[in-house]
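Build the 3D complex.
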Amino acid sequence: MMPSLGFFRMMLASGSRYLRTVLTLAEFELRKLRHDSSEIFIRGVQPALWLLVFGVTFASIRAIQTGPFTYLQYLTPGVLAQSVMFVAVFYGIMLVWERDLGLLNKLLSTPAPRSAIVLGKALSAGVRSIFQAIMIFALALIMNVSLTLNPLELMGAIIVIVLGGMCFSCISMCLAPIFKTREKMMGIGQAITMPLFFTSSAIYPIELMPDWLKAIAAVNPLSYVIEAMRTFLIPGYYEYYQPPLLLDIGATLLATAIFATIAALLFRRILE
Amino acid sequence: MKAVEAVNLTKMYSDFKAVDAISFDVDEGQIFGLLGPNGAGKTTTIRVTLTLIKPTSGSITVFGIDCVKSAAAVRQISGYVPQEVSIDTDLTGYENLLMYSKLYYTPKDQRESRIGDALEYMDLADRQHDLAKTYSGGMMRRLEIAQALMNRPKMLFLDEPSIGLDPTAKTAVWEHVKRLRDEFGTTILLTTHDMHEADVLCDEIAIMNRGKIVADGSPEELKASVGGDVISLVAHNGDCSQVLQEHGKLLSSRPEEGAYELVVARGEKAIPSILESLESHKIHVESVSLKKSTLDDVFLKYAGARIQEGGTWKDARLLRRAVRKRG
Ligand SMILES: Nc1ncnc2c1ncn2[C@@H]1O[C@H](COP(=O)(O)OP(=O)(O)O)[C@@H](O)[C@H]1O
Ligand SMILES: [Mg+2]
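Done.
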């Protein structure tokens, strides 16, 4: 039997409602940023130190071989991705905070599907990540790091940033219904971000890692985000390394989809 | 059709029974109150009804819609003001309403008028473009109620609507809640630990304690069930006992001292006719006083304890202050 026209219309209507929920949540995240953007600057201090202190020092002692690219060129996408991860991991903590306040109960009392709320929160993290990244990108340009200014490549980088923000916020939102209290989530946030950072290719190329670390880096989503960012941001990177860009983006997408699904499935537990 | 119908509703948190096989129903257009101390299970009952959590057993419907099977449909016709804070204090009052009108998929051409009406209605129009963190506790609560009206709900759930508010703000919230029922016929289910609030707002009350409903009825019925109001009067020229017995139950009578105590259902209504009868028997009343029975007496009778103003009440006030100062 052919599905009726009514069925398609219903699917279309619920699809559009789904999308509207996701976009509404991101829209109001943007509005919050417009009212108060000081957090972007406060959260920019740490990545700035990575570039200004760690980056400059390691560039001058030439301890890490990064092919024909300067160490700062190599490091900037890593620090960018790291700051995106830090912003995004905060969303799980925020979920618990909103639960404690009552905001989350209120949000869940609307007809919006749970998974649309999860994706909406993830997209909010992605949107906020863009602004965080712009700040660090600007700092790198001021430090005279040679990065691409090609609008298409920048668009590509922005897409990767949004995806990265969504991916790490979903990981964090998977943990929130398990750990449930703000204190535990703060601890967990720190306990996962640092290891993810040091087992990724953020500050040294994967080829220089010992084998056991290589194995971890291969399943660390941050590595894929960082490699995709390097491909887009460092002029000549693609031509020199021929990195598997589609694999990098595909892996990030897959990780986002997996963690978003888990977060949506666990979501109800956060209220119990 | 009943607005809400709960039958043997039970909710367990692991092995703790937060709601214990309660049954109640709410008539359309009523303000129905769940009255009880902290931890009675009021919030849990609201959350189950709003489909935020699933009941362990029993059934619950809102306007005939099953809260387990058709959760989204229940949420579409319900408005909710949680016990804690439900507005985003980093957004303006207007934006808080806009966000929810979008989340309820209000047609674009109706959004502005609904938001405008709600702001007007809750007396917030002049501050709508200020960030909500600059609002007073009472204004925040009114914004929360405005927010719950964005989908024009048939059924409104208010969890401790005046918790942590000062007396003036409290009275303002009560007025607004009553108007919602009177002008739009909105059915309202509210919870409270405040006897006075239940008394002035509710048409029907269910008293809850330790997960169970221990008594229900209108405030008058409940108060009458614990004996009613006590009228004391003083009159010296003649024995009043005979006359007084026609009006209620004589509690004590000491003609030598001229002092009498009488129990009646509605004291303020009974006094004029009592005075008239005594007057017709040529008995002059020197003084009369009325002690109304309170829901506190009711609670004492059915739950065997008084409702304490416990910790969360103060917590709520502190929470609001904390939110205001954040940022
Ligand atoms: N998520 C939860 N997990 C475990 N116990 C809970 C949870 N929420 C509430 N309770 C317990 O259930 C009981 C009823 O709580 P609640 O419904 O909030 O009462 P009220 O709103 O009447 O103060 C309390 O003893 C409370 O500690
Ligand atoms: Mg409560």
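The pocket of adenosine-5'-diphosphate (ligand 1) is lined by residues A 272; B 13, 16, 18, 36, 38-44 (CB under 6 Å).
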